[in-house]
Amino acid sequence: MSLARIRSLAPFALVAALVTLGGCGPALYTINIMPGARAVEQAREAGAPEHAPYEYYYAEAHLSKAREEAAEASYQDAVRYAEIAEEFGTKGRDLARRRLREMGR
After folding, report:
1. Residue 31, in any domain of the structure
2. CB within 8 A of 87, min separation 6: which ones?
3. How many CA atoms lie within 13 A of 81 on its CB side?
4. Who has greater pLDDT, 3 or 44?
5. What torsion, rounded to 10 degrees, do the Cα atoms 37, 43, 46, 52 define?
6. Please, what sign has the CA dihedral across residues 50, 52, 58, 62?
7. Is the pLDDT confidence value at 18 over 60?
8. Run of H or E residues at 99
9. CA distance linking residue 57 with residue 92, whole number of Å
10. Domain total for the chain?
């Protein structure tokens, strides 16, 4: 294949790559929202709303914002919020469990 032929096909290859990669946002969001939602749920079950309210409600707010951003097709932002929700959900769960152990429950 000649160099001229390759150059003439380059724009088509670029468009094909962009179309193919355009579907990755929802998949990445789905992969990241599940652990975030699970962490927030585990924190709630561990008693975080009462024993680690800052971490729990911060995680819950970020999970909600992640869903909102995904609804607006801002998947990169949604992934970032979901990661924060997972981080603080986990912190809330662990803190609530530790405080319950300290209280002898």
Report:
1. yes
2. 39, 59
3. 19
4. 44
5. -160
6. negative
7. no
8. helix 75-102
9. 9
10. 1
Nearest to 73 by CA among 23, 14, 18, 16: 23
Identify whether 14 is part of a domain: no
Whether the CA torsion 30, 33, 34, 37 is positive or negative: it is negative
Q: pLDDT of 37-70, one tens digit each?
A: 999 999 999 999 999 999 999 999 999 999 999 9
Position 7 in a domain:
no
Please indicate, yes or no, if residue 6 is contained in any of the structural domains. Answer: no
List the one residue out of 31, 45, 32, 16 whose CA is nearest residue 82. 32
Residue 88, domain extent? 24-102
Token duo for residue 63: 């999970």
**Does pLDDT of 24 surpass 80?**
no
